[in-house]
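Quarterly update from the structural biology core.
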Amino acid sequence: MAACRNTARERMEHSAVARVLDPIAQFQLYEDYLDSKVTPMDLFYSKSRELARKLVEHGRKGTVLSREEFEEKKAAAQIAEAAKSNTFYNRNQPATLASAGKELKDNFLKALAEREEANRSGKMTSVIFIRDHNTVGQEVSGYIDYAHRLKTQDFEPYFSGKKRLMPGRSDLCYYNWKTQVSTSNSSPNFEVIYNDPNGLLFKNTRDKKILNVDPLLQ
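Predicted structure, tokenized:
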């Protein structure tokens, strides 16, 4: 019983620390985040909470996150939290394939499903390139470490068609063609090399092989 109580307490402490480190994670919705920025003066002049939210969202650019920025930061916080949880609990149980039992018609999802088990088990590491439009119509592109994403995110919504797999600021590389925001992050599987004369490269952290993603490379 004492061991059980200690484990429960450690989980609570871990959760509390995660919330402190990732303040965005405490907000379920973007509206909740905006509410935290609304002041009594905002409510006094606007006369309604909905209008106060709009004033905060559009009147304090640079200090208040846009909806897209909020969603990206929240997703990054969730990925970081999942990674910390995996390390904290030391889970080594065989993972159930998210693509199992799905009748996939999309060729992209079929390719992901074919590589899912190998990426989960460590037999393979894959880099996914995506160029698409986000929820607000902005064109974005990026490179995703598939194996790392599988460990830190639930892929069932993607394989079931409920969500689209999109690159984010926490992935290997991300670029928003509208806002020109660009980010790059090395992952447990790949080191990003972006100042090489040959262009953007990814170095596998295990076998040290270099992946050149230039589509024109023969």
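Strands lie at 127-133, 139-145, 173-176, 182-184, 190-196, 199-204, 210-212.
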